[in-house]
Amino acid sequence: MTAKKINVMIVDDHMVVRRGVRLVLQTCNDIDVVAEADSGEQALLLCRQHHPDVVLMDVKMDGIGGIVATRSICRHYPHTRIIVLSTFAEQKMIEQMKQAGAMGYLLKDASAQEIVAAIRAVHAGKSVPAPPVKAAPEAAATAPISVNTNLSKRQKEVLSLLAAGCSNEEIATQLTISHATARYHVSAILTKLGVANRAKAVALALKYGLIKP
Fold first, then answer.
1. CATH classification of the domain holding 117
2. What is the CATH number of the domain that holds 192?
3. I need a labelling partner for 112 at 20 to 30 A (CA). Which of 6, 10, 54, 95 fits?
4. Which of 78, 106, 138 is the last residue of a domain?
5. Which of 5, 111, 90 is nearest to 52 (CA)?
6. pLDDT of amino acid 134
C-alpha cells in the first residue's frame, strides 16, 4: 500500500518564490503541492477547498497578511500545520506567528533540504525552531551584503529564466546558446551567490533586487 503524500500549499505574494519552492518539492516522492496562494485571503479559500496538511506561509503580504491568515487556518483547520517562510527573522514577528499557531519558521534562503525536512517534521507533529534573530532593521540597513551580487548581464538573464522555472535545455533555447554554456552559467550563478540550488538562488535574487518579481 502506497503511503499517503503530504499535501502542501505555498502562500507567497511573489510568483517566482512560489515557483522555486514548488520545483524543490516536486523532487520529493512523499510531498504533493496541491495549491498556491498569493495572499492570506486566497490562502483561506484554498485551504477550505484542498485541506492541505502543511502550509508554507509568507508573513508580509497585502491584505490580511500571514499572521491573521495563520491564526484563522489554525482555528478552522486544526489538522493543518503552518510553517513560516519569510525574508525576515525579527523577534516580534517570530513571536506573533508562534502565537498565531505556526509550528515552524524558516527564512527564504533556507536550503531545499531544510524546507523538506521542516515539512516532514511538522507533519509528524514536531516543531521547527526559528532561525537566530537578526539585528534591528536600522543596524541591518548599514550592514554590508554578504553575498556576491556582481552578476553579468547574461547571468542575470539566466537567473530570470531560472526564476521562471526553465531547465538548462530551455534556457539554452531561449538564449540561443549551447546546453553546456547554459549549464556553465547556472553553475557560475550558484557559485557567485554561494548557494547550492536554484530555489535558493531565486530567493537571494529577489532579496537583493537582482531580478524583478
1. 3.40.50.2300
2. 1.10.10.10
3. 95
4. 138
5. 5
6. 54
| Residues 41 and 124 placed together within one structural domain of the fold | yes
* Beta partners for residue 32, in sequence order: 7
Neighbours of 177 (CB within 10 A): 15
pTM of the entire structure? 0.65
- pLDDT tens by residue, 112-153: 899 999 999 999 999 988 877 655 444 444 444 445 667 888
Same domain, 166 and 198: yes
Q: Distance of CA 179 to CAs 20, 105, 124, 133, 162, Å? A: 21, 37, 41, 41, 14
Distance from C-alpha of 118 to C-alpha of 164, rounded to nearest angstrom: 25
The residue type at 56: L
Q: Which residue has the cell 532579496?
A: 207
